[in-house]
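User: Structure please.
Assistant: Input sequence and predicted structure:
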Amino acid sequence: MLEFEKITVSLGGVRILRDVSFRIAQSDTIALIGANGAGKTTTLRTVMGHVKSTGDIRFDGKLLSDVPPAKRSGLGIGYAPEDRKLFSAFTVEENILLPGKVARYSASEMARALARVYEILPELKEMAGRPAGSVSGGQGKMVALGRALMVGKRLLMLDEPFQGLAAALARRYAEALRDLRDRDPEVTLIITESNPSLLERFTDTALVIERGEISERALKVKPVEA
């Protein structure tokens, strides 16, 4: 489903990713574990085409270098960045709809995708008309998740989703991810995190990234008892 082959990224003359190679199968739930600065965010941004890279990235066997960054969401790839990047002057719903507009969804596709978001995150429907600039930081994380879900039908990438969340919101976020997995078992999830214990309830495999290199081994995250 997603394959990195010898991906190297340099920013400002500093090499961030160093010949990174890995494969992720459809329906996998992967934790990308690493310390701050290890290259987790850059890995996700490379998939979206937000940074220049050497090497090959394939999605469903297709070279992503052949797909302009603005059209990658149309492949079914959703991305929720760590800093949310909401448009504060737009409403919550307008923010959620944006990726669908970029992907040029038809009116019926837009309606179905939005209904899916609200089924998984019903609290966003209650907030739909609020300016995005008025929501709390934790609520903003939920809006960013909803926005990614609009187009993330094949692959959903979440960058440090639990960072800064209060305990109650962290539990709710985790519930939403479990609900997504139950509803759409074929969706592939990649979740970055510096603390693997936060992901052990709903992911089973972790890739470890250190100093821009993926470890040779994939760690099994031991589930905890409910």
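The CA atoms of residues 120 and 176 lie 6 Å apart.
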